[in-house]
Amino acid sequence: MNYTYKHEYLTVNIPVDYLEDAPSLLSTKLHEWWNTSYLSDLDPNENIPFVTEQWLTKHINTEITKEAIQKIKDANPPTNITIKLVIELLTSDNFLKLEDEIDNVPMFRPYITTPLSDIEFSLDTYIYNPNTKKFESLEIIDQETLIEERLSPEIINEFYSFHQRLLQATSKKLKLYTAQPEERIDKWNKQGFIDKNSYFTDSLQRAEYYFNPEENDIIVFYRIPENQLIMTSDAFSAKEYVTLNNVVIE
Length: 250
What we know:
Largest sheet: 6 strands, antiparallel
Order of helices and strands: EHHHEEEEEHHEHEEHEEEE
Number of domains: 2
Number of helices: 7
Oligomer: single chain
């Protein structure tokens, strides 16, 4: 008989402003999972406090996590967005992480409750690199999705501004390529700015991938300040961006 392996997730999200709730949140999640897990023969009341203490000592209360949280607070997140420390309790093999399997690379997600539902909606995933002391964005939600979720333009702009502050984006100009209809490029050059939410990449080969001769595309490059861009992908050996606002062509 063939079995399809499926990675399971056992995740606890802890608001960074309420880390004191971590022990109870971890304990509750572990108790919910324990009796149907491979550890069901072991007494949860004897073992869960040990697991919880491991996470507190090796991850939650470390200087690295505290440093990351302070950087988040210094970036001044919008008041309607809740930043949470993400704890993934299982390994890729679906075993409970213990001892050295608990890393010290904190992960965070910003959440907001959308007008469409009472369910919290994740806007991105951030990893804090303790070596560079910088955050990396893994899966930022694009503007079209946020608009579909009926978030107001003000809230969207506030989030993206926070995102840029957190990632320490600078005014350094990046050479970026785009494949666009020639008429659109002419329009940008005549009006003197690149339209908001326009696609760019740092790879000529990646721009060629999107090139569509049937739409009269041409490939051009511009130099755009980093702090006027949102990175949407860092895959296939290429970084992809959209413009955060209208960008003046200099």
